[in-house]
Amino acid sequence: MTAPQHRPAPRHRLDGPEGAPVVVLGPSLGTSMDLWLPQLPALARDWRVLRYDLPGHGGAPAPDGPATVEGLAAGVITLLDDLGIERAAYAGVSLGGAIGAALALGAPDRVASLVLACTSPRFGDPGPWRERAVLVRREGVGPVADSAAGRWFTPAFDNAEPYVAMLRATDPEGYAACCDALAGYDVTGRLGGIRAPTLVIAGAQDVPTPPRGHADLLAEGIPDARLTVVEGAGHLANVERPAEVTREITAHLDRTWKRTWKGHAR
Fold it and tell me: What sequence ranges are listed for the domain AB hydrolase-1 (predicted)?
């Protein structure tokens, strides 16, 4: 399979020591690159951390046309090219994870290691995503923001507001375009083509992408993938259980990327 076609590079930020192996962090629908702040201190000690925003999210421009997951992945490839990064590890949450799977399928030589968190090879029937896109284009992001905490976190979590605020600040067209991208996404029959060593992370109480029927399909379909289920975590498991998720990610990256890295970033 050829690499995804060229797309504009997304808004981004780099942290961590120059010259260190690179880890790209992809956010979920409705959040910004700051979704990864709970993991940033630990990762940025030893890694060059590259975070990016989805179109219309975190102050990034809204898309000027239809969005697909493959197109969003192509934008990440453009970003890597612009920064002179030949190869990197990638970790993504939800839509960010779907982008990671698309990268691993479309540009396998660029993805050294992969973490797919609270994501799926297919996010359900396309209809509800198309309907949500229509709703947001008509009424703005308010209706989906009002119910976001219940989708993203368990009832016990008491710090949802900073993350809901990310959604409230998202451009409606950017959000709707990403809903359309999710509606058209299905790599269920192609998971065997992912060659990167893969860790799948699931929140035990994740409502949008529960372990059964989502994370387990990724782990079963990707050769030699490992699945870990985090108790007490909803859809944004990296936020609700940051210590556990950080530990899993760093152990996976240390094992699969740091030991094999040979200066692929300049």
Answer: 23-246
- In this model, does residue 134 exceed pLDDT 90? yes
pTM reported for the whole predicted model: 0.94
Per-residue pLDDT of 234-249, as tens digits, reads 999 999 999 999 999 9
Class of domain 12-258: alpha beta
Across 94-119, b (16+ Cβ under 10 Å) vs e yields bbbbbbbbbbbbbbeebbbbbbbbbb
Of 70, 236, 114, 231, give the one whose Cα is nearest residue 167: 236
- Enumerate the domain spans of the chain: 12-258
What is the distance between the alpha carbons of residues 10 and 15, in angstroms, rounded to a whole number? Answer: 16
Query: Residue type at 9?
Result: A
The full 3-state SS of 246-263, as one line of letters, equals HHHHHHHHHHHHHCCCCC
- Torsion angles phi and psi, residue 199, rounded to 5: -110, 130
Listed residue (143, 137, 146) closest to 171, CA to CA: 137
Of the candidates 10, 223, 252, which has an alpha carbon nearest to the alpha carbon of residue 117? 252
pLDDT, tens digit (0-9, with 9 covering 90-100), for 135-174: 999 999 999 999 999 999 999 999 999 999 999 999 999 9
